[in-house]
């Protein structure tokens, strides 16, 4: 299955001065990710930049060698790519958690992340924290990585911004909680990765409309989603990535 179009955008949003979100990709290894960092200026943003490099480097070392020993995690039911993603994320988590443990609380960083890797006609996704992923096929939208946030623990009426606070993240707790999903791709499928600066302000009907409608290119789809989120009152950093097959 060929990746026909790709687009991504990250922005600090209309009110913040620093962007702790980020995205990265490796077309040679069909690896894609979006990240939502926290910790503040010079902390969360730097952590995200470091995590991107660590995950890509570790993943490449493992995925390039089918006989490689998975040093931190192995499940025979998973694809090589899924095991490689998890080893990469666990390695990055352990490094950041150790670094955080040596710092005062106000100097600690963390990050939510969704990482996706393609293996022929299969796409493997692993999510941690408050990022999410949608799968679009023939006019139907389904969430394949569900955000792990405070909203799933409380039905209170507090501000929706706080309901997207992550319940897990890289560098946050000793054990890394995660979701893994595999999607068999068909021609015409689209996969959308997002941080909470988008999905928290968009309905699934609005997301479906933007993926379903004709657009000049994938980048225009991404940009229009960011603009719509801002028009609905977004106050956060925002990142989106679209993969079109």
Listing every helix as H and every strand as E from the N terminus to the C terminus, the arrangement reads: EEEHHEEEEHEEHHHE
Percent of residues in helices = 25-40%
Mean pLDDT: 93
Q: What is the strand arrangement across the widest sheet?
A: 1-10-9-6-7
Shape: globular
List the helices and strands and how they pair.
Elements: E1 5-11, E2 21-26, E3 31-38, H1 44-63, H2 80-101, E4 110-119, E5 122-128, E6 132-137, E7 140-145, H3 160-163, E8 179-184, E9 190-194, H4 196-199, H5 204-212, H6 218-231, E10 238-244
Antiparallel strand pairs: 1-10, 2-3, 3-4, 4-5, 5-8, 6-7, 6-9, 9-10
Helix pairs in contact: 1-2
Description:
The chain contains six helices and ten strands. It is an alpha+beta fold and 245 residues long. It has helices at residues 44-63, 80-101, 160-163, 196-199, 204-212, 218-231, and strands at residues 5-11, 21-26, 31-38, 110-119, 122-128, 132-137, 140-145, 179-184, 190-194, 238-244. Helix 1 (44-63) runs antiparallel to helix 2 (80-101). The strands form two sheets. A five-stranded antiparallel sheet has the order 1-10-9-6-7. Strands 2-3-4-5-8 form a five-stranded antiparallel sheet, covered by helices on one side. The chain is globular and about 50 Å long. The protein has one domain: Phosphatase 2c, domain 1 (4-Layer Sandwich).
Main attributes?
single chain; 245 residues; alpha+beta; Phosphatase 2c, domain 1; five-stranded antiparallel sheet; 6 helices
Short description:
The protein is of the alpha+beta class.
